[in-house]
Structure formats: C-alpha cells, structure tokens
Write a structure and sequence with these properties.
The protein is of the alpha+beta class. About 25% of the residues lie in helices and about 30% in strands. The protein contains 3 helices and 6 strands. The strands form 2 sheets. A 4-stranded antiparallel sheet has the order 2-3-1-4, covered by helices on one side. A hairpin with a 5-residue loop joins strand 2 and strand 3. Helix 1 runs antiparallel to helix 2. The radius of gyration is 20 Å and the shape is extended.
Length: about 110
Amino acid sequence: MPQKVVIKLNINGEKSRSKALQIASGVSGIESITLAGEDKNQIEVTGDGIDAAALTMLFRRKMGYSELVSVGPVPADGGSSGRGDQWENEAEVQIPAWGYYNYPCVWNGRYA
C-alpha cells in the first residue's frame, strides 16, 4: 500500500533544494517527490515500502537538520485522508519478528 511521508528540512536556496531532491530520488520504492510548505521547506515523498525513519536519518546525515512531520497512507481521492472504513477493519495485533535470547551472565571470566 503506498504511503506519503512528509519531512521538514533546512532549505536555504536552490542548491539545497536540488540536493534534497537528489538524495530522495536515490532511495528505492519512491514514486514521486514534491516540495511543500509555505517556504518550500518540506519534502513530500510518495511510494511503496518507504522506511521513513531511515529516510529522515539520511537527510540528517547529508543536509543537517531534518524532522519527520507525518507518515500516512496516500489518499484515494484528492481531498479526503482515506482513513474511513480502512482503519476499522485492520484491528489485528502485530507480533515483532525478533525473539528474545537469554545471554549468559559473565563476571570475572566465569559464568554465574
């Protein structure tokens, strides 16, 4: 299911805008990239299977300040948020894929 990620960046000029668009275009799974906000300081990325936290950290590494504003599904039509009956039917609990491993406690080179 496609999702929309909005990230606020520190964009000062045309050079930093093109750098932000170039960074976002290098990530796999992205379908469209647009600049949004009143000062064009937010980047909206739409695609399938986007890791929003990893994308935000990539922007932080390359450009400095970045803040994850929102993550959500792409609206079916232009105006609504698309959250009507979809969220009521998805009420199942997701169990994490990793397990717990009990590591032995070691003090002074001996197992306790």
